Amino acid sequence: MMLYRKKLISVLILLILVSLFLISCNSNDLSKKEYLAVINDEKIKVEEYKIYLWRIKQLYQSIGQEDIWETKFDGKPAEEVAKERAFDSIKSIKIQVQEGRKMELSFTEEEKEEVVSQTEELINSIGEEEMKNMGLTEQDIKNVVEDTIMSQKVYMETTKDFVGNKSEFEDFFEQNKEMLTQVRVKHILLKTHDLVDGKLVELSKEEQENAKIKAEEALEKARNGEDFDSLVQEYSQDESSLAYNGEYTFMRGQGMDKNFEDASFDLKVNEISDLVKSSYGYHIIKMEEIIEPDKELIELEYYDLMKRNYYNKKLEEWINNATVEINQEVWEEIKIL
User: Fold this and answer.
1) What is residue 64's predicted lDDT score, i.e. its pLDDT?
2) Per residue in 38-62, is it b (16+ CB within 10 Å) or e — as a string?
3) What's the whole-model pTM score?
4) CA pair distance 231, 224, nearest whole angstrom
5) 3-state class (DSSP) for residue 69
6) Per the CB 3.0–4.6 Å rule, which of 3, 124, 246, 309 could disulfide with 186?
């Protein structure tokens, strides 16, 4: 159920083109070297920005390791892109916190305890040595945590009266029901291509002919009622699914070969396909289950995403109306490595 929920949320996000929103002490007396920018007359401490930058650095390196910093994105060095992303994040959070002040929001006792807990976690994540290298104090980290939690309160306060449109959801569900349906199939693969270093390499003509002969043989046995799981173990060359007797569960548009996907969705439960030619080879597919979308779950997720979309528009207005001035001298001095 959790895996289905994650897949479902991903598809919903794609279908309705929703972009999720970005992930304080008085600092107006800071010297020019101590602040990175001024956002709506509030000076942003360099140290707080460094925490956002540290997070982005961890994210980038988890994707591309250390050599990601040699990469360019749309002609820009990765370091510059990371700095800009970190600034977009702190700008978004600070503007939300400023709105929270206008709303006169404050922390509950439970939220204060959460600040303490998350501050300790972030300190442990960064580490004492890295904090020292970055010139961070515990208060700097606490400020960032408080801002993050306050931005969540602003979201809750801004969207508390949001009500989803039932008729819009019904239209959405009917239009996208097929995209939200899953199939659970089992298959036998006889290869005509091998995957080598991430690329499909064509097998010899003789090997391809033998693959088709074997596939036709397996299909005949399956059509004659032989146990499909046993045939998978006897014939299939799809090593990644052998442990599961050739089973895959997927929605449309989740990266399966187009011919394989179309053939799977055309089957009825317990029906066995003809030979299906994909970029990998010949498949025999058996439909095990058609998993209809859980309408109640989708409705909840749909309204939640619509609520986030409503909030994003508000946030975009706040950001567009904000005055932002970057301290270029300090900006140029900040390095990731």
Assistant:
1) 73
2) bbeebbbbbbbbbbbbbbbbeebee
3) 0.72
4) 12
5) helix
6) 246
